[in-house]
Amino acid sequence: xxxDLAGKAAIVxxxxxxxxxxxxHRFGREGINVIVNYHSDKSGAQRVVEDIIAYGSKAIxxxxxxxxxxxxxxxxxxxxxxxxxxxxxxxxxxxxMPAPSHxxxxxxxQRVIDVNLTGYFLGSRAAxxxxxxxxxxxxxxxxxxxxxxxxxxxxxxxAASKGGIKLLNQTLALEYAPSGIRVxxxxxxxxxTPINKEKMNDPEKKAALEKIxxxxxxxxxxxxxxxxxxLASEQSSYVTGITLFVDGGMTLYPAFMNGNG
Length: 261
Ligand code: NAD
Hints:
- The protein has eight helices and seven strands.
- It has one domain (3-245): NAD(P)-binding Rossmann-like Domain (Rossmann fold, 3-Layer(aba) Sandwich), CATH 3.40.50.
- Strands 3-2-1-4-5-6-7 form a seven-stranded parallel β-sheet, with helices on both faces.
- α1 (18-29) crosses α8 (222-232) and α3 (69-83) packs parallel to α4.
- Helix content is 44%, strand content 13%.
- It is α/β, with parallel strands linked by helices and 261 residues long.
- It binds nicotinamide-adenine-dinucleotide.
- Nicotinamide-adenine-dinucleotide binds next to α1.
- The site of nicotinamide-adenine-dinucleotide has 26 residues, from α1.
């Protein structure tokens, strides 16, 4: 628990399930009031809201496709309207649509870039405008991936979006450091969420995945929420522009583990 977080207000995008839901839960337990954004899963978002209210914090579910220009501003407006403030904005909404690159349609490419990268720019812009206009030393957290660093065949758009987030994150951190606004990313490895459900339910695919994780297992979303809470708190007050990898060592070139190479 981080005492300085109680009474703050946060927005978490794509928070009806998976990592976003876990971060929203953790924030609620820290005493943060949360705008729970969802795209289509209204009942999932409502369950997260009810849990947060049961912890004693406030929460509201707000629908919005984060690839659309008006959505991020609507979330910021909702935070101000319901909570009277905004301190933390978490860009989390993301998607995968794998395809061999030579067959990837422009529509497929564009959708992933629109949600995973342009959506993060739009979310960051709306939050930063509020922070700057109101002199708030706010906190931006961007869900990147180990694939901001590790290439990923058939996921060219996904890897390009996460590589883009890395420099968006660093650029915004540099641009707004003089205002006391901190901008950091989290780079998860393999986390047990709906995005990985198919892989985790197939014993062969699961074993192949575990082989490239030095710690040997895919983790639960709470490990990412722990990182988000720390980055949101004053405990990380001198940290900006990083990607905090939460990956069981996946970015450490596991093929070299036994002295190979
Ligand atoms: P998930 O599929 O379980 O959840 C993604 C959420 O984003 C869902 O709630 C979905 O509805 C929402 N979303 C998708 N498109 C949206 C849109 N246009 N507008 C608003 N919401 C939208 O995935 P997850 O594993 O929880 O992933 C969360 C983030 O973490 C993503 O950015 C993902 O790339 C990243 N990540 C996940 C893993 C992992 O192993 N699970 C690893 C690395 C990075």
